[in-house]
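Thread: "does anyone have the structure for this chain?"

Original post by V.I.:
We have the sequence but no experimental structure in hand. Need at least a predicted one for the grant figures.
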Amino acid sequence: MKQQLRVAAYAVCVRDDEMLLARWVAKDGAKRWTLPGGGMDHGEDPVHTVVREVEEETGYLTEPTALLGVDSIRRAWHHKIGGHGDWHGLRIIYEAQVTGGVLRNETGGSTDLAAWHPLDAVPSLARVELVDIGLDLWRERPPVGRSRLTGRANL
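Reply from O.Q.:
Generated one for you, tokens below.
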């Protein structure tokens, strides 16, 4: 069985009771809102990753202000040619504030829109589970940085 690890960093940006989200486009064309952020390059510091990824996906310059937590997720996959696999995502989640830049959409990446959403409207959005985990960490500030929602989608 092939094993794959992906480490990524994401930002929870909230201001004026609105949350910044990016709309992720899946390989099958499905579109769901997610936290801005993404995969860490080899040798890259996670703080640099989140700043780079938020700018790529939203146009905003940000400053991480707190480490909210770490989320771990696993998914099994099967390909007719590639056999079975075990994918493990390690997601580092920061609180961040916008310090500059102008809101814009990413072109040529994994997201197609960036927008602010009222916090009370987020539950009605088509979104990935990471949005709920990020909001839970932001609201609850658990001492060990683990959301009570972590582990729902593991193998």
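V.I.: this helps a lot. DSSP finds two helices and eight strands in the chain.
O.Q.: and Residues 2-140 form a domain with the Nucleoside Triphosphate Pyrophosphohydrolase fold (CATH 3.90.79.10).
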